[in-house]
Amino acid sequence: MNSRLFAITRKEFIHILRDPRTLGVMFLIPIVQLVLLGFAATTDIRHLNTAVYDADRSAQSRALIEAYRASDYFALNYFVSSEQALGELLDRGDVRAAMIIPKGYAEQLARGEMAQVAFLLDGSDPAVAGTANAAAQAVGQAQSTQIIQRKLGVEVTNLGGIEIRPRVWYNPEMKSSYYMIPALIGLILQFITILFTAQTIVREREQGTIEQLVVTPLRSWELIVGKLIPYIGIAFFNLAEILILGVILFGVPIRGSLLLLVVTSFLFLLTTLGLGIFVSTIAKSQQEAMLITFMINLPGIFLSGFFFPLEAMPPPLQFLSYLIPLRYMLIILRGIVLKGVGLEAIFSPVLALAIFGFLILLGASLRFRKSLE
């Protein structure tokens, strides 16, 4: 090897080895990508949360319920006494599917008529709705075949059976753009605020200007807030930009309150700005800040339900998703934009986001203040 080339290569290796944190992040990123893409990147839905309204309450209706319970696709976790209760569960996102067995179901089967069963599907996630629709039809057809087989040899002229009638709510055409564009708001807010907040403070430290700010009469909280306000403004401009272009270019409906959307977005910004401040206290360079930001954003993308449904993930990853603030923001965004729900339907994710935002921003601010001292 050329001696000059060898010298510069050796010098670069020494620089890398002198920064063990960056080196560790570089080796850790492939492992995180492997785990997340290997386990989270799947659309194979199993044990989908499902509600049941059995208005017939007969042996035949219970047999149908047991047929769906026996399948791997549906987890019948809610049994309600009215269709209104089903709607509330779907609005809150507690269930993704709901089955309605009408009164007179058993009598229709006994008369050899085709009994209709309604299946309500949450169309805010087209992948989940499509899989649930196919599974509901498959289970219904299997149960219908069993009923017909039991009738064969008794009365062939009137065989009856079951007809599953799917109804897709919120996104009847199951357009993927309706699902992705509200989620892009949360992802872009997170990416921009964490990355640029961390980098701007690290850049001040690299250039030595942070010390000049510290010796001024500025209080530490004034320095922090002054640094963050421009990025809050940019984040809300991006929010408006995505909403307007989403409506104009993709026809995405905005069914809920814009004021509620702005307030909840501000709560989410508390978490992302706090994470940006936290990264700035760890990173020693802008390159390191970018790598750490990437490490924070990567789990957020895959474990929040942005690309892949949470129901398709293994239970350990589903548990970890509760620690991802973006998960709650996506529920809020899709609830307001697509479902048109109010605060009562998204109160739980809003409360979780407020708690996350307060704790993260408080802890990051204290750490940043200590690093200034």
* Unreliable parts: none
Order of helices and strands: HHEHEHEHEHEHHHHHHHH
Shape: elongated
Radius of gyration using CA atoms only: 27 Å
The major pleated sheet works out as: 5 strands, mixed
Termini distance?
Answer: 48 Å
Number of domains: 2
Class from secondary-structure proportions: alpha/beta
Give the amount of beta strand, in percent: 5-15%
Please give the order of strands in the largest beta sheet. Answer: 2-1-3-4-5
Mean pLDDT: 81
Relative helix content: 55-70%
Number of helices: 14
Task: Find the count of extended strands (DSSP E, 2+ residues).
Answer: 5
What does this structure look like?
This protein has about 375 residues and is of the alpha/beta class. The protein has 2 domains: about 50-170, 3-Layer(aba) Sandwich (abc type-2 transporter like fold); about 175-370, no CATH class. The protein is built from 14 helices and 5 strands. Helix 3 links the parallel strand 1 and strand 2 (about 75-80). Helix 7 runs antiparallel to helix 9. It is elongated. It starts with a helix and ends with a helix.
Give descriptors for this structure.
about 375 residues; abc type-2 transporter like fold; single chain; five-stranded mixed sheet
What's the quick description here?
The protein has 373 residues and is an alpha/beta fold.
